[in-house]
Protein backbone atom coordinates (compact mmCIF):
# COMPACT_ATOMS: atom_id res chain seq x y z
CA UNK A 1 0.00 0.00 0.00
CA UNK A 2 1.31 3.45 -0.87
CA UNK A 3 -0.32 6.70 0.14
CA UNK A 4 0.58 10.32 -0.46
CA UNK A 5 -1.45 13.00 1.31
CA UNK A 6 -1.13 16.76 1.10
CA UNK A 7 -3.19 18.89 3.47
CA UNK A 8 -3.40 22.27 5.18
CA UNK A 9 -1.16 22.23 8.22
CA UNK A 10 -3.55 24.12 10.48
CA UNK A 11 -3.37 27.52 12.09
CA UNK A 12 -0.85 29.69 13.87
CA UNK A 13 -0.78 32.58 16.37
CA UNK A 14 0.25 35.34 13.98
CA UNK A 15 1.67 38.73 15.01
CA UNK A 16 0.91 41.48 15.79
CA UNK A 17 -2.40 40.37 17.38
CA UNK A 18 -1.28 36.76 17.94
CA UNK A 19 -4.72 35.49 17.02
CA UNK A 20 -5.50 32.20 15.29
CA UNK A 21 -5.32 32.54 11.50
CA UNK A 22 -4.83 30.30 8.48
CA UNK A 23 -1.30 29.96 7.08
CA UNK A 24 0.05 28.80 3.74
CA UNK A 25 2.02 26.00 5.38
CA UNK A 26 1.21 22.46 4.26
CA UNK A 27 2.23 18.97 5.25
CA UNK A 28 2.97 16.14 2.84
CA UNK A 29 2.89 12.58 4.15
CA UNK A 30 4.10 9.44 2.37
CA UNK A 31 3.34 6.07 3.93
CA UNK A 32 4.51 2.68 2.73
CA UNK A 33 3.53 -0.68 4.22
CA UNK A 34 4.35 -4.13 2.91
CA UNK A 35 4.20 -7.62 4.37
CA UNK A 36 4.73 -11.24 3.39
CA UNK A 37 4.14 -14.48 5.22
CA UNK A 38 3.84 -18.25 5.13
CA UNK A 39 1.65 -20.79 6.95
CA UNK A 40 2.27 -24.42 7.90
CA UNK A 41 -0.62 -26.55 9.16
CA UNK A 42 -0.27 -30.26 9.95
CA UNK A 43 -3.36 -30.56 12.15
CA UNK A 44 -1.86 -30.72 15.66
CA UNK A 45 0.74 -28.05 14.78
CA UNK A 46 0.01 -24.68 13.15
CA UNK A 47 2.78 -22.15 12.35
CA UNK A 48 2.59 -18.68 10.84
CA UNK A 49 5.71 -16.69 9.91
CA UNK A 50 5.70 -13.13 8.62
CA UNK A 51 7.86 -10.15 7.72
CA UNK A 52 6.57 -6.58 7.50
CA UNK A 53 8.04 -3.16 6.80
CA UNK A 54 6.49 0.24 7.44
CA UNK A 55 7.89 3.63 6.48
CA UNK A 56 6.46 7.11 7.06
CA UNK A 57 7.90 10.35 5.71
CA UNK A 58 6.53 13.79 6.58
CA UNK A 59 7.49 17.21 5.18
CA UNK A 60 6.20 20.51 6.55
CA UNK A 61 6.50 23.12 3.82
CA UNK A 62 6.21 26.91 3.98
CA UNK A 63 6.21 28.75 0.60
CA UNK A 64 8.27 31.57 2.12
CA UNK A 65 10.93 29.44 3.84
CA UNK A 66 10.82 25.99 2.27
CA UNK A 67 10.87 22.90 4.56
CA UNK A 68 10.30 23.83 8.21
CA UNK A 69 10.37 20.26 9.48
CA UNK A 70 10.88 16.79 8.00
CA UNK A 71 10.86 13.35 9.59
CA UNK A 72 11.33 9.75 8.49
CA UNK A 73 10.50 6.64 10.50
CA UNK A 74 10.87 2.98 9.54
CA UNK A 75 10.01 -0.31 11.21
CA UNK A 76 10.99 -3.84 10.21
CA UNK A 77 9.34 -6.76 12.02
CA UNK A 78 9.89 -10.53 11.84
CA UNK A 79 7.37 -12.71 13.69
CA UNK A 80 6.57 -16.38 14.26
CA UNK A 81 3.34 -17.57 15.87
CA UNK A 82 2.27 -21.11 16.56
CA UNK A 83 -0.43 -23.34 18.00
CA UNK A 84 0.07 -26.91 19.17
CA UNK A 85 -2.49 -29.44 20.36
CA UNK A 86 -0.45 -32.18 22.09
CA UNK A 87 -3.31 -34.21 23.63
CA UNK A 88 -7.07 -33.92 24.01
CA UNK A 89 -8.29 -30.50 25.18
CA UNK A 90 -4.79 -29.16 25.88
CA UNK A 91 -3.75 -26.20 23.72
CA UNK A 92 -0.36 -24.44 23.57
CA UNK A 93 0.17 -21.03 21.95
CA UNK A 94 3.68 -19.69 21.44
CA UNK A 95 5.54 -17.14 19.39
CA UNK A 96 8.21 -14.50 19.10
CA UNK A 97 8.99 -11.32 17.20
CA UNK A 98 11.87 -8.95 16.64
CA UNK A 99 11.41 -5.34 15.59
CA UNK A 100 14.03 -2.87 14.36
CA UNK A 101 12.99 0.78 14.18
CA UNK A 102 14.69 4.07 13.36
CA UNK A 103 13.67 7.73 13.36
CA UNK A 104 15.33 10.92 12.09
CA UNK A 105 14.28 14.52 11.50
CA UNK A 106 15.54 17.66 9.80
CA UNK A 107 17.30 18.60 13.05
CA UNK A 108 18.34 15.14 14.27
CA UNK A 109 20.77 12.81 12.46
CA UNK A 110 18.79 9.78 13.59
CA UNK A 111 18.22 7.19 16.30
CA UNK A 112 17.51 3.47 16.15
CA UNK A 113 16.55 0.68 18.51
CA UNK A 114 15.53 -2.97 18.68
CA UNK A 115 13.07 -4.95 20.78
CA UNK A 116 12.63 -8.72 20.94
CA UNK A 117 9.68 -10.51 22.51
CA UNK A 118 8.73 -14.15 23.06
CA UNK A 119 5.69 -15.68 24.72
CA UNK A 120 4.12 -19.00 25.59
CA UNK A 121 0.58 -19.81 26.76
CA UNK A 122 -1.00 -23.11 27.78
CA UNK A 123 -4.74 -23.57 27.87
CA UNK A 124 -7.49 -26.10 28.24
CA UNK A 125 -11.08 -26.23 26.98
CA UNK A 126 -13.17 -28.88 28.65
CA UNK A 127 -16.95 -28.82 28.54
CA UNK A 128 -18.09 -25.42 29.78
CA UNK A 129 -14.72 -24.60 31.38
CA UNK A 130 -11.88 -22.76 29.68
CA UNK A 131 -8.60 -21.52 31.20
CA UNK A 132 -5.25 -20.16 29.98
CA UNK A 133 -2.02 -19.04 31.64
CA UNK A 134 1.12 -17.69 30.03
CA UNK A 135 4.19 -15.50 30.19
CA UNK A 136 6.13 -13.12 27.98
CA UNK A 137 9.74 -11.92 27.87
CA UNK A 138 10.64 -8.57 26.27
CA UNK A 139 14.23 -7.51 25.66
CA UNK A 140 14.80 -3.88 24.65
CA UNK A 141 18.16 -2.57 23.42
CA UNK A 142 17.92 0.49 25.70
CA UNK A 143 15.83 -0.69 28.66
CA UNK A 144 16.87 -4.31 29.13
CA UNK A 145 14.67 -7.33 29.86
CA UNK A 146 11.18 -7.47 31.37
CA UNK A 147 9.03 -10.52 32.19
CA UNK A 148 5.23 -10.36 32.41
CA UNK A 149 2.52 -12.93 33.18
CA UNK A 150 -1.18 -13.28 32.50
CA UNK A 151 -4.09 -15.66 32.71
CA UNK A 152 -7.82 -15.94 32.05
CA UNK A 153 -10.65 -18.34 32.70
CA UNK A 154 -14.31 -18.65 31.82
CA UNK A 155 -17.12 -20.96 32.87
CA UNK A 156 -20.56 -21.52 31.36
CA UNK A 157 -22.87 -21.04 34.36
CA UNK A 158 -26.00 -22.04 32.51
CA UNK A 159 -26.77 -22.55 28.85
CA UNK A 160 -25.66 -19.45 26.91
CA UNK A 161 -24.40 -17.52 29.99
CA UNK A 162 -20.63 -17.43 30.62
CA UNK A 163 -18.59 -15.92 33.48
CA UNK A 164 -15.18 -14.54 32.44
CA UNK A 165 -12.17 -13.20 34.35
CA UNK A 166 -8.59 -12.30 33.49
CA UNK A 167 -5.44 -10.73 34.92
CA UNK A 168 -2.41 -9.55 32.98
CA UNK A 169 0.81 -7.60 33.29
CA UNK A 170 2.11 -5.17 30.68
CA UNK A 171 5.41 -3.60 29.62
CA UNK A 172 5.75 -0.72 27.14
CA UNK A 173 9.02 1.00 26.27
CA UNK A 174 9.02 4.66 25.16
CA UNK A 175 9.08 5.20 21.41
CA UNK A 176 11.96 6.89 19.62
CA UNK A 177 9.73 9.93 19.06
CA UNK A 178 8.94 10.16 22.78
CA UNK A 179 12.63 9.91 23.60
CA UNK A 180 14.43 11.98 20.96
CA UNK A 181 12.04 14.26 19.04
CA UNK A 182 11.49 17.99 19.65
CA UNK A 183 9.10 16.83 22.40
CA UNK A 184 11.40 14.06 23.59
CA UNK A 185 12.64 13.22 27.06
CA UNK A 186 15.64 10.90 27.24
CA UNK A 187 14.99 10.28 30.96
CA UNK A 188 11.73 8.42 30.25
CA UNK A 189 11.26 4.99 31.82
CA UNK A 190 9.13 2.11 30.45
CA UNK A 191 5.50 1.78 31.52
CA UNK A 192 4.51 -1.21 33.65
CA UNK A 193 0.92 -2.15 34.38
CA UNK A 194 -1.39 -4.78 35.84
CA UNK A 195 -4.95 -5.18 34.57
CA UNK A 196 -7.94 -7.07 35.94
CA UNK A 197 -11.40 -7.68 34.51
CA UNK A 198 -14.51 -9.66 35.44
CA UNK A 199 -17.57 -10.04 33.28
CA UNK A 200 -20.62 -11.92 32.09
CA UNK A 201 -21.42 -12.78 28.47
CA UNK A 202 -24.85 -13.83 27.23
CA UNK A 203 -25.13 -15.51 23.84
CA UNK A 204 -22.48 -17.15 21.73
CA UNK A 205 -20.70 -14.64 19.51
CA UNK A 206 -19.25 -16.01 16.28
CA UNK A 207 -17.39 -13.19 14.60
CA UNK A 208 -16.66 -12.67 10.92
CA UNK A 209 -14.60 -9.51 10.78
CA UNK A 210 -16.50 -7.32 13.24
CA UNK A 211 -19.89 -8.83 12.43
CA UNK A 212 -22.15 -11.13 14.38
CA UNK A 213 -22.03 -13.98 11.90
CA UNK A 214 -24.23 -16.76 13.21
CA UNK A 215 -25.55 -15.55 16.57
CA UNK A 216 -28.90 -13.74 16.73
CA UNK A 217 -28.09 -11.73 19.88
CA UNK A 218 -25.19 -11.03 22.17
CA UNK A 219 -24.69 -9.10 25.40
CA UNK A 220 -21.71 -8.64 27.71
CA UNK A 221 -20.96 -6.66 30.86
CA UNK A 222 -17.37 -6.25 32.06
CA UNK A 223 -15.79 -4.55 35.09
CA UNK A 224 -12.14 -3.56 34.68
CA UNK A 225 -9.26 -1.95 36.54
CA UNK A 226 -5.75 -1.06 35.39
CA UNK A 227 -2.93 -0.04 37.73
CA UNK A 228 0.14 1.47 36.07
CA UNK A 229 3.54 2.81 37.05
CA UNK A 230 5.54 5.36 35.04
CA UNK A 231 2.74 5.84 32.51
CA UNK A 232 3.93 8.08 29.66
CA UNK A 233 1.90 11.26 29.15
CA UNK A 234 2.34 14.50 27.21
CA UNK A 235 2.93 17.64 29.29
CA UNK A 236 2.28 21.11 27.88
CA UNK A 237 4.75 23.93 28.60
CA UNK A 238 2.08 26.64 28.36
CA UNK A 239 2.37 28.46 31.69
CA UNK A 240 4.68 25.76 33.05
CA UNK A 241 7.98 26.27 34.86
CA UNK A 242 9.19 22.68 34.42
CA UNK A 243 12.97 22.55 33.74
CA UNK A 244 12.50 20.68 30.43
CA UNK A 245 10.43 23.58 29.07
CA UNK A 246 13.68 25.52 28.62
CA UNK A 247 14.60 23.21 25.73
CA UNK A 248 11.13 21.85 24.93
CA UNK A 249 8.98 25.04 24.80
CA UNK A 250 6.05 23.33 23.06
CA UNK A 251 5.80 20.48 25.58
CA UNK A 252 7.41 17.16 26.35
CA UNK A 253 6.71 13.57 27.39
CA UNK A 254 6.96 12.61 31.05
CA UNK A 255 6.37 9.64 33.36
CA UNK A 256 3.55 9.70 35.88
CA UNK A 257 4.39 7.81 39.08
CA UNK A 258 1.18 5.85 39.62
CA UNK A 259 -2.15 5.98 37.80
CA UNK A 260 -5.39 4.02 37.89
CA UNK A 261 -8.14 3.55 35.32
CA UNK A 262 -11.30 1.63 36.20
CA UNK A 263 -14.87 1.35 35.06
CA UNK A 264 -17.17 -0.90 33.10
CA UNK A 265 -18.14 -1.76 29.54
CA UNK A 266 -21.51 -2.84 28.16
CA UNK A 267 -21.85 -4.50 24.74
CA UNK A 268 -25.03 -5.39 22.89
CA UNK A 269 -25.47 -6.94 19.49
CA UNK A 270 -28.32 -8.39 17.45
CA UNK A 271 -28.97 -9.77 14.00
CA UNK A 272 -32.17 -8.26 12.64
CA UNK A 273 -33.10 -10.47 9.75
CA UNK A 274 -30.69 -12.26 7.45
CA UNK A 275 -28.69 -9.24 6.30
CA UNK A 276 -28.73 -6.57 9.02
CA UNK A 277 -26.45 -6.64 12.08
CA UNK A 278 -26.56 -3.94 14.80
CA UNK A 279 -24.19 -3.32 17.72
CA UNK A 280 -23.82 -0.90 20.62
CA UNK A 281 -20.90 -0.48 23.01
CA UNK A 282 -20.74 1.86 26.01
CA UNK A 283 -17.82 2.41 28.38
CA UNK A 284 -17.50 4.38 31.59
CA UNK A 285 -13.95 5.10 32.73
CA UNK A 286 -12.57 6.81 35.82
CA UNK A 287 -8.86 7.66 35.50
CA UNK A 288 -6.84 9.12 38.35
CA UNK A 289 -3.32 10.26 39.10
CA UNK A 290 -2.36 8.40 42.29
CA UNK A 291 1.28 9.49 42.59
CA UNK A 292 2.10 10.09 46.28
CA UNK A 293 3.25 13.65 46.96
CA UNK A 294 2.28 14.92 43.51
CA UNK A 295 0.52 18.27 43.15
CA UNK A 296 -1.81 16.46 40.71
CA UNK A 297 -2.77 13.70 43.15
CA UNK A 298 -6.43 12.81 42.61
CA UNK A 299 -6.67 14.60 39.24
CA UNK A 300 -8.28 13.00 36.21
CA UNK A 301 -5.75 12.04 33.54
CA UNK A 302 -5.58 14.38 30.56
CA UNK A 303 -7.74 13.53 27.55
CA UNK A 304 -9.53 10.65 29.30
CA UNK A 305 -13.31 11.10 28.87
CA UNK A 306 -15.65 9.40 31.33
CA UNK A 307 -18.22 8.32 28.74
CA UNK A 308 -17.93 6.83 25.25
CA UNK A 309 -20.58 5.10 23.18
CA UNK A 310 -20.45 3.56 19.72
CA UNK A 311 -23.50 2.57 17.66
CA UNK A 312 -22.95 0.45 14.55
CA UNK A 313 -24.94 -1.21 11.79
CA UNK A 314 -23.88 -3.42 8.88
CA UNK A 315 -25.97 -4.43 5.88
CA UNK A 316 -24.97 -7.31 3.61
CA UNK A 317 -26.12 -6.36 0.13
CA UNK A 318 -27.18 -8.77 -2.60
CA UNK A 319 -23.70 -8.74 -4.16
CA UNK A 320 -21.77 -11.65 -2.66
CA UNK A 321 -19.08 -10.62 -0.20
CA UNK A 322 -20.05 -6.92 -0.05
CA UNK A 323 -21.18 -5.30 3.20
CA UNK A 324 -21.89 -1.61 3.82
CA UNK A 325 -21.94 -0.16 7.31
CA UNK A 326 -21.86 2.92 9.51
CA UNK A 327 -20.63 3.83 13.00
CA UNK A 328 -21.58 6.72 15.25
CA UNK A 329 -19.08 7.33 18.09
CA UNK A 330 -19.89 9.86 20.81
CA UNK A 331 -17.32 10.87 23.43
CA UNK A 332 -17.91 13.11 26.48
CA UNK A 333 -15.94 16.11 27.77
CA UNK A 334 -12.49 15.74 29.33
CA UNK A 335 -9.52 17.87 30.37
CA UNK A 336 -6.70 18.79 28.01
CA UNK A 337 -4.10 19.12 30.77
CA UNK A 338 -2.87 17.19 33.79
CA UNK A 339 -3.85 20.06 36.11
CA UNK A 340 -7.52 19.78 35.07
CA UNK A 341 -7.74 23.50 34.25
CA UNK A 342 -8.33 23.35 30.47
CA UNK A 343 -11.69 21.79 29.48
CA UNK A 344 -11.81 19.78 26.26
CA UNK A 345 -15.21 19.46 24.65
CA UNK A 346 -16.75 16.16 23.65
CA UNK A 347 -17.14 15.14 20.03
CA UNK A 348 -18.95 12.86 17.60
CA UNK A 349 -17.50 10.90 14.69
CA UNK A 350 -19.50 9.25 11.89
CA UNK A 351 -17.79 6.55 9.82
CA UNK A 352 -19.15 5.07 6.59
CA UNK A 353 -17.51 1.97 5.18
Choose one word for the global shape. globular
Task: Give the biggest beta sheet.
Answer: 16 strands, antiparallel
Helix content: under 10%
Helix count, DSSP H or I runs of 4 or more residues? 1
Output mean pLDDT.
89
Q: First CA to last CA: what distance?
A: 18 Å
Secondary structural class: mainly beta
How are the strands of the largest sheet arranged? 1-4-5-6-7-8-9-10-11-12-15-16-17-18-19-22
Radius of gyration: 24 Å
Low-confidence stretches: 1-9, 206-213
What are the secondary-structure elements, in order, as H or E?
EEEEEEEEEEEHEEEEEEEEEEE
Strand content: over 45%
What is the number of strand segments?
22
Characteristics:
disordered N terminus; 353 residues; 16-stranded antiparallel sheet; 68% strand; mainly beta
What does this protein structure show overall?
This protein is mostly beta strands and 353 residues long. The chain is built from one helix and 22 strands. It has one helix at 176-180, and strands spanning 2-8, 11-14, 19-22, 26-41, 45-62, 66-84, 90-105, 108-126, 129-140, 144-158, 161-172, 191-202, 207-208, 211-212, 217-235, 252-272, 276-289, 307-316, 323-331, 334-335, 343-344, 347-352. It has a 16-stranded antiparallel sheet. Strand 16 and strand 17 form a beta hairpin. The longest helix has 5 residues, at 176-180. The relative contact order is 0.07.
Write the topology of this structure.
Elements: E1 2-8, E2 11-14, E3 19-22, E4 26-41, E5 45-62, E6 66-84, E7 90-105, E8 108-126, E9 129-140, E10 144-158, E11 161-172, H1 176-180, E12 191-202, E13 207-208, E14 211-212, E15 217-235, E16 252-272, E17 276-289, E18 307-316, E19 323-331, E20 334-335, E21 343-344, E22 347-352
Antiparallel strand pairs: 1-4, 2-3, 4-5, 5-6, 6-7, 7-8, 8-9, 9-10, 10-11, 11-12, 12-15, 13-14, 15-16, 16-17, 17-18, 18-19, 19-22, 20-21
Amino acid sequence: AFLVARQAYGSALLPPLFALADTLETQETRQLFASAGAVYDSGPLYLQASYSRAKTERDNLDPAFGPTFTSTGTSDRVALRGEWRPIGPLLVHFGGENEWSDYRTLFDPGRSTRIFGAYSQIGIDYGGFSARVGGRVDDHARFGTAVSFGGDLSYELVDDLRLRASVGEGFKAPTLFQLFSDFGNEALRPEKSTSFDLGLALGERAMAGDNLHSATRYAAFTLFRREAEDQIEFASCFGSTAPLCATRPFGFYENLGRVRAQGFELELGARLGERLVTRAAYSYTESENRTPGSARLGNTLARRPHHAITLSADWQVQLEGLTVGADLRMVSDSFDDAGNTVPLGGYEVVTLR
